[in-house]
Amino acid sequence: xxxxxxxxxxxxxxxxxxxxxxIAGESTFCKFSSIQVEMSDSSEHIKNVIENQLSKYSIDDxxxxxxxxxxGSITNMLAEYIMSHKIYILTGVNLGMVLEAGLSDESITxxxxxxxxSQFGSRGICFVNDIVKKGEEENEI
Length: 141
Description:
By secondary structure, the chain is of the alpha/beta class.
């Protein structure tokens, strides 16, 4: 079975899941959980939170962790479990990626899903002013 963890510094992870749920419905995100860390959290506390979350899954479950930033404490600590669990970590989480993950078909391989989420997340980043300007220039022609 495939599960998703959205992890962040502060409440971002919970907020993204809540926003995605608002858009696509609660049943779409039943396999999602959130881990959020605070500046005051010790490494031991974060490790306990991660281990508590991972203990909910079978050793054969695929776990896709979508984290806020590469090199961040939560990403680094989750990476410590790559060798002992089927955990796949993708950084730079955004709402589009979470929606895409929630709507994904579990029959797609985890590697293909990770590649798709990475591309989807990147395509969602754009400077809208340039798009509007380009549209106006094309309308003038």
